[in-house]
Structure formats: C-alpha cells, structure tokens
Write a structure and sequence with these properties.
By secondary structure, this protein is an alpha/beta fold. The chain has helices at about 5-10, 45-50, 55-60, 70-90, 120-125, 150-155, 220-230, 295-300, 325-335; strands spanning about 25-30, 90-95, 105, 110, 125, 130-135, 160-165, 205, 210-215, 235-240, 255-260, 260-265, 280-285, 310-315, 320, 340, 360-365. The protein has a three-stranded mixed beta sheet with strand order 2-1-17, with helices on one face. Strands 5-6-7 form a three-stranded mixed beta sheet. The protein has a three-stranded mixed beta sheet with strand order 8-9-10, with no helix packed on it. Strand 8 (about 205) and strand 9 (about 210-215) form a beta hairpin. The longest helix has 20 residues, at about 70-90. The model has no long low-confidence stretch (mean pLDDT about 95).
C-alpha cells in the first residue's frame, strides 16, 4: 500500500539540527543575541539584589526605559564584528526576532516590561538534541523565549526535541521578603525560596554525561532537582560551591574548556571543595582580570570583573576571548589553547560577553563520559 505523501515524509527519520553535548566540541551552528529593542530591566528584587544600594535606588527609577544610545551603539559595533568573525570561520549564525521590549505584559499576579534577547544562554539549555526553555525567576524575562520561537519551531520541524520547563508563577512566595545580600563571613543565603522550580540555563555548564551547576539568586534547589529528574539517570548534575556573595551564572565561576581542563575563578571557588569527579582534571586558575578604565562601563555593567572568564570555545584548542583582557589571553596561550582576540567589552551592560551572548546549537561530536 502506498502511503500518502505527507505520511511518507513523516515516516522518514529526521536528523536533528540541534546536537551539542559539551562546551568544546567543534562549533558548527550558534544563536547570537540581539540588542534591538533592549530595555533596562523593570525594578524587581531579582535584579536589584545584585546591585549596590545606590545603584538599586537608581535602577528603580530608570527600569523599563530604553538604554541610552551611548551604550548601545558601541556594543552593537562590537556585536556585529563578533558575528562577522564567527561567519568568517564557517560557523552558521542564527538570530532571534527583533522586538520592542518596552511593551508591558501581565499575568494574573503581576505586570512588567521586558528586558531583551541579548543573552540566549540564559533562557534556553541545549542538552544533546533537546532545547529546554528554562523557568526563569526574572519577571521581565518571563516571555523572552517568544523572540526565539521562529527558530525553535524550525529546529523542531527538522527533528529537534523542544521542551519547556513549567512556567513559574513568580509570586511573592518565591522571593524572601527583606532579603539582604550576606556579608563576608556570614552564612550564605539566597533571594529565592523553594516555592517552585526556577533556574537560568547559564547556571549550568555541560561535559557530556556530567553537568555542573551553581546555586544562585536565579536558580534554586527545586530548579536543579527538576532538571535532574527530567534528564534522568543518563546524566549526573554536580553542584559547584560559590563563595560569591551575590551569585548569578556559572560561566564567571567555573567553565570546562576541553576534556580534562576547567577554568576556575579563584575568588569564588575553593579548589579543595570541588566535586570529587574533577580530581583527575587540570584546574586552571583564572588570572586577575585587567582593570576597566571607562567609568561609564564600570557603572553600567550588569556583570562583575570576572567577565574575563566568559570565553567561547570553538573547539578543544581555539577560543574566542576579550581583547582587553590580555592577562587571560596570555594564560590561555600558556595552557595550550589558541586564543582569538575579539572585542565585546561594551556588551557588559546588557548581560555578559561571548559565552553569555551565544547559545551553541550544534557541535560536531557525540555524547561521552569525561570522568572515571
């Protein structure tokens, strides 16, 4: 019996265009964020908890407005050069849809304006052939993945798995009232309760069957447990203890660079307390970041000084790193890597650098174990 044309097509096996198992296999396709329509995040404890008191007060007044052109224009120039570099190296670059993030949206419990789609690494997690939309704790980013829907639907039609974690309610029950960042020597505490699972994808990094995570002010224990159950016994999730007083995102704390090599922030991580599985790995201690001279950039950056660690591996040897951070470039070279200097310093006010600004969709390689 002859199958109808559409049924026969559906019966043909699809080869997923999404396939990425670690941070270092040869990069073939990547999503890079956009600056179009980016908006200062609306005032909320999840934003202000990481800011100095004076900056938090200022932020409450300007949240929901456009970033000034003096910030966006320089960042856009650097972003365009970064995209051109990736394409010149034969890497396919995909982009989210441009949108107006000033538009207000609401749920039954709250309303907010948006932020942007500058950092696809935060809202989506790629595990093998699956893209997982993450349950983010930021109200201003609640619908951020809608700007990626045309890409997600294309990947799904071509064979990728597409999952969305439970969309959080983000009511006051999730956030500790009167939260204060712990001081030096105080017990660690976090903004989030365990009311519901929330996590940013950027609090996880991948090494085949093993993932590493930091608990933070945007990722709670329930979020880590949700992902652990979702992935099942084929994967192990190990927690990296961070000494950062306001932790958010692992890629300025701990970053696997190649099989057997991991980059570590000496200010945030006690290497003696790393998970036991890392005992056979070379732990590379990040050098002190080069100071930032531009006062405006220091005041407006959403990230700490350790953004020098926010590098993008193209394969086990080649790595894109910030041109300004010459100490990191020299260290990478000394460790046997081939650094490719690039400018993205002025992207910091919008959430990060090369690792944050990208989501690797396809890397050439399979699922392996890199630990005894």
């Amino acid at each position: 019996m002859r199958l109808p044309t559409d049924t026969a097509a559906a019966a043909e096996p699809l080869v997923s265009p999404v396939s990425s198992h670690n941070e270092w296999d040869p990069l073939e396709e990547v999503i890079v964020g956009r600056l179009d329509g980016v908006t200062i995040p609306s005032g909320h404890p999840v934003v202000s908890c990481n800011l100095p008191p004076w900056a938090a007060r200022l932020h409450r007044r300007v949240g929901g407005f456009r970033y000034p052109r003096v910030l966006t224009e320089r960042a856009q120039q650097e972003l365009d050069q970064f995209v051109a570099l990736l394409e010149s190296l034969g890497i396919t670059v995909r982009r989210p849809d441009a949108t107006d993030h000033r538009r207000r949206f609401r749920t039954p419990d709250w309303s907010s304006r948006g932020f942007g789609n500058t950092c696809p690494r935060d809202s989506m997690l790629v595990i093998g052939d699956e893209i997982i939309e993450t349950p983010m704790a930021w109200p201003c980013r609640h619908f951020e993945t809608h700007t990626y829907r045309s890409l997600l639907k294309d990947y799904f039609r071509r064979g990728a798995r597409w999952t969305a974690a439970p969309r959080p309610q983000l009511t006051g029950d999730l956030f500790k009232e009167g939260f204060r960042t712990p001081g030096t020597g105080e017990p660690m505490r976090y903004l989030l309760t365990e009311f519901e699972p929330v996590f940013d994808a950027a609090d996880f990094v991948r090494a085949g069957h093993d993932l590493f995570v930091t608990r933070s002010n945007v990722t709670n224990g329930m979020g880590i447990q949700w992902l652990r159950r979702h992935l099942g016994p084929a994967y192990r999730i190990h927690e990296i203890e961070s000494r950062c007083r306001a932790p958010m995102h692992i890629d300025t704390t701990f970053l696997p660079l190649a099989p057997g090599k991991a980059l570590v922030n000496p200010e945030y991580v006690d290497t003696d307390r790393l998970p036991d599985v890392l005992r056979s790995w070379d732990i590379l201690i990040a050098p002190e970041p080069d100071p930032i001279d531009e006062r405006l950039l220091r005041l407006t950056s959403m990230c700490g000084k350790w953004l020098s660690m926010n590098v993008l591996m193209l394969d086990e040897k080649r790595v894109i790193a910030e041109r300004h951070h010459t100490g990191m470039l020299r260290a990478l070279e000394g460790w046997g890597f081939e650094p490719i200097p690039c400018d993205l310093l002025h992207y910091a006010p919008f959430g990060g650098s090369f690792h944050c600004a990208t989501l690797d969709v396809r890397r050439r390689g399979g699922l392996e174990s890199y630990f005894d």
